[in-house]
Amino acid sequence: MLAAALLFATTTTLVRLASNTLSGYFISMMRFAVGAVLSVGWLWFSRRGLHIVNKRDWLLRGLYGSLSMTLSYIAISKTSGGRATMLSNTYPIFVALFGRLFFGQKLLPTAIPALVLCTAGSVIILNDGSGYALAGDAMALLSAVFAGLAVNHLKRARGTDNPVSLYLSPCIFGLPVVASLAWTTGGMPVTAHPAAIAMAVGLGVIVFGAQILMSW
C-alpha cells in the first residue's frame, strides 16, 4: 500500500506538469489507453485470458472508477496538484459511509474519529482563502465520492477476480468517454512538446503499477 501511495503521488506530479500543455481529458485518455494496453498484454502473456467471475461488481467498479479517475485529473489541472489530491483523498470517508449504507459492512468505532478528522481537514482546505476555482474543488470531491463506490465494488470483486482484470474495467469504460470529450472540447493537441506526451505515457505506466498494487 505504501508503494502504491508513492506511485500515485508520482502520477499527481506528472499530471500537474503535463497539464501545462495538455488538457485533463487528453491526459486521462492516455492513462486509460496505456492501462488498457498493459492490462491486455499482461493477460495475454500470462495466458490467463479475461475471465470475469463477478461481472456486476467488475462493471460497476469500472464505471465509478473511470469517473473518479477522470474527475481527479481534471481537478488537478484546474487547481494545484496538492490541493486536488488532498480533496480527492477524502475518499475513505465515502468508502466507509457507502460500505455501511449499501454493502452491509461494519463501521469500527476507531474509524469514527478518523473520519471526523478527515472531514474537518477537507473543510479547512475548502476555506483556506487560496482563491482556487470552486469547480476544481467540486470535481476533486466528486472524484472522492465515485472512488468510495468504486473501492467497495473493487473489494467485492477482488474475492474472485485478479487485479489486472479489475483495472482493465475502468480503462474500457473511461477511454471512449474521455477520448470523445478531448475531441469535442478541442483537447486533442495538434502540436505538443514531446516531453509532455512522454509524461502522459509514463503516467499511464506508473498508475498501472499503483492500481495493481492497491488491488492486490
Q: From the helix content, strand content and strand pairing, which structural class follows?
A: mainly alpha
Helix share bin: over 70%
User: Outline, from the CA principal axes?
Assistant: globular
- Give the biggest beta sheet: none
Instruction: State the end-to-end distance.
Output: 9 Å
Q: Rg from C-alpha positions?
A: 17 Å
Return the average pLDDT rounded to an integer. 89
Number of helices: 9
State the total count of DSSP E strands.
Answer: 0
| Percentage of β-strand residues | under 5%
Give the low-confidence spans: none
N-to-C SSE string, H for helix and E for strand: HHHHHHHHH
How would you describe this protein?
The chain is mainly α and 216 residues long. 77% of the residues lie in helices and 0% in strands. It has nine helices and no strands. The protein has helices spanning 2-18, 24-45, 55-78, 81-88, 91-102, 111-126, 134-157, 163-184, 194-215. Helix 1 (2-18) runs antiparallel to helix 9 (194-215) and helix 3 packs antiparallel against helix 7 (134-157). The termini are close together. The relative contact order is 0.23.
